[in-house]
Specification:
Oligomer: single chain
Number of domains: 2
Largest sheet: 5 strands, mixed
Strand content: 15-25%
Order of helices and strands: EEEEHEHEEEEEEEEEEEEEE
Low-confidence stretches: 1-12, 14-51
Helix content: 10-25%
Strand order of the largest sheet: 15-11-12-17-18
Distance between the termini: 106 Å
């Protein structure tokens, strides 16, 4: 066996030296072995030292562990970011509904709109639109009959994006979503004239429209054994009617009579525990009574 390589004097490497590099200004030859074989003496070369690199099992496990830790740290942050985005869209919805309400008041001599206008064909005309009589989830709904429709650019602000209208514990009132916000019943009570906004002493403290839902156990497919969440359309001070949906963490969004949108917590002891984790309850009466 003969060892071949560089010699002093700038000797050109023989053909069977396949690579080299320079380090610290000097020549660094990779030594090769050359051996003769039979059948014509054909040569075969191989590196004496290997420069191949790769990940060991330990290094790979460390990388996987770091990625898992980073994913765990990022997960809660992404959830919070998504909740914040949904909350911002809900605030935008209520702000537009608040502007539409004020435009209605201006066009009707400062008087609020009623919660329910009266019978129309085979259904009722409510503040949010016309709703047909009939079975839950099968009734027709027409938003164009609502009090605020002339002041809105179509639909799109009528359901809070954080309102999860799906799953086996939710039921629709009509075909498709109708409305995800409730109106203050004391502003437009049934059987009486709606209030004049001028009589409201503190408009910034009077909630007009709020995130809403109700727990239903008396209309199929809901039952006492299987109470279900459904959308609802008014709120008041009745202790038997928990219709505010605190779906933004522990809070509900509300637009007030002065046009601002704020967050409200449930009245102590008012939460309905039948459809967890949904938090359905009532507002402080101070936010409801004109």
């Amino acid at each position: 066996m003969k060892v071949v390589g560089f010699e002093k004097g700038g000797r050109i490497p023989p053909p069977d030296v396949v690579g080299y590099g320079e380090r610290d200004g000097g020549a660094d030859a990779r030594l090769l072995t050359s051996s003769a074989t039979g059948n014509g003496g054909r040569g075969e070369s191989r590196l004496l030292t290997s420069s191949a690199t790769g990940f060991s099992l330990v290094e790979l496990l460390v990388v996987v562990a770091v990625i898992a830790i980073l994913a765990g740290l990022a997960g809660p942050g992404m959830v919070k970011a998504r909740q914040a985005a949904l909350g911002a869209r809900c605030v935008g919805n209520l702000r537009q509904l608040g502007i539409a309400s004020q435009l209605y008041w201006d066009d009707h001599s400062g008087r609020a709109f009623p919660e329910r206008f009266g019978r129309q064909e085979d259904g009722w005309r409510y503040w949010f639109g016309w709703l047909q009589d009939g079975a839950e989830g099968e009734r027709r709904f027409e938003a164009k009959s609502g009090a605020l429709w002339p002041y809105l650019s179509g639909r799109g602000v009528d359901v809070c994006p954080a309102f999860q209208q799906s799953g086996d514990r939710f039921k629709f009132k009509a075909k498709g979503g109708a409305f995800g916000y409730a109106y203050n019943l004391l502003m437009g009570p049934r059987g009486r004239d709606p209030i004049q906004l001028a009589q409201v002493q503190e408009p910034s403290g009077l909630a007009v429209l709020v995130d809403a839902a109700q727990v239903n156990d008396f209309q199929a497919p809901a039952s006492p054994e299987k109470p279900m969440l459904e959308e609802f359309y008014y709120f008041g001070t009745n202790r038997l009617e928990a219709t505010i949906h605190f779906r933004h963490g522990t809070k509900a969004h509300a637009v007030f009579a002065d046009g601002h949108v704020g967050c409200e917590r449930p009245l102590a002891g008012s939460l309905d525990p039948r459809v967890p984790p949904h938090r359905v309850g009532r507002l402080d009466p101070a936010r409801v009574v004109p």
